Amino acid sequence: MNSRSAVFLCVVAFLLAGCAPRCSIDAKKTGARAENGVGKNASAQQLTDRDIFGNETTLAVSEEDIQAALEEDELRVPLNSPVILVQSGSRAPEAIMQQEMSRYYTVATFSGIPDRQKTVTCNKDKNKDENQDVAAAENMNWMQALRYVAAKGHQKAIVVYQDTLQSGKYEAATKNTVWSDYKNEKLTDSVSLRYLVRFTLVDVATGEWATWSPVNYEDKVLPPLPAKKNVAETTTEQQISQLKQRTYASMVKDLVNRYQ
Q1: pLDDT given at position 236
Q2: Which InterPro entries match (predicted)?
Q3: pLDDT of residue 215
C-alpha cells in the first residue's frame, strides 16, 4: 500500500468515527431559530435566581466548596471598563440608571426578559432512523448565555439589578409600617414609598459573582395642593423619579467603591 492510499484510509476512518461531533454555537443558534422562531411568545418576565446564579442555589455545597470560594480572587471592575447593564423584567434599563452607570463605565444594555424556550435540534441519533432528528437538551442557563454574548463583545462584567417599588401605610395599633408592592394605586399623605433593589455583578471571564442590596430610601407622599387638577398624580410621579434617582446614584457609587 502506497503512502497516498494510507492517508486516504486514515481520513475516511477519522470521518466515520467523528460523524457526530458536539454541536457548535452557530449550529445551536440555527436550530433554535428554526425551532422557536424570533421573538415568539415574548412576555415581561422577571429573572429568577436560577437565571442569574444557575444551579448554585440548588446544589449540595460542601465545606470544601465554601473554603475554595473564599480563596478566590476578589472581583475587580476598573473605571471605564465595558460592561453590560440589565434590568430584570425590562427590555432595557431605565434611562436614569444608564446615565448613572455611564459616568463610570462604558455601558451596553441587554434585555432582562428571559427566553424560556431552549430546545434546539442539532444532530442525529445513530441508533434510530437516520432521518429522525433528536432534540439536544442544552444547559441554556440565562447568565451562561449572556456571558457568551459579553465575551463576544469583549465586555468585562455584567451588572443585573432587580427592583421593586413599594408603598407603605403606618398602622397606629402596631406602630409599624406595612409594606406592599406599589401597583399605581392612588396614594394619600399617610402613605410612604420605598424603592428596593438587588444588585448582582458577574465577571465575564470567570463567572464569579457578588450580590448585595443598597440601603433603601423611604419617602412620605406629599399632600396635593388644593384646587389644582392632577397635581396629586404629578407629585407622586416626581417623588418616584427622585426616589429612583437617589437609589441609583447611591448603588452605582457603592459599586465603584467596592470593585474599582
Answers
A1: 78
A2: YafT
A3: 82
Buried b vs exposed e over 63-100: b needs ≥16 C-beta within 10 Å?
eeeeeeeeeeeeeebeeebbbbbbbbbbeebbeebbeb
pLDDT at 38: 38
Residue 70 has what pLDDT? Answer: 84
Domain ranges of the chain: 43-112+141-259
**pLDDT computed for residue 33 by the predictor:** 45
**Digit-coded pLDDT (tens) for 159-206:** 999 999 999 988 888 888 899 999 887 777 678 899 999 999 999 999
Task: Give the CA angle between residues 230, 232, 236 to the nearest 5°.
Answer: 120
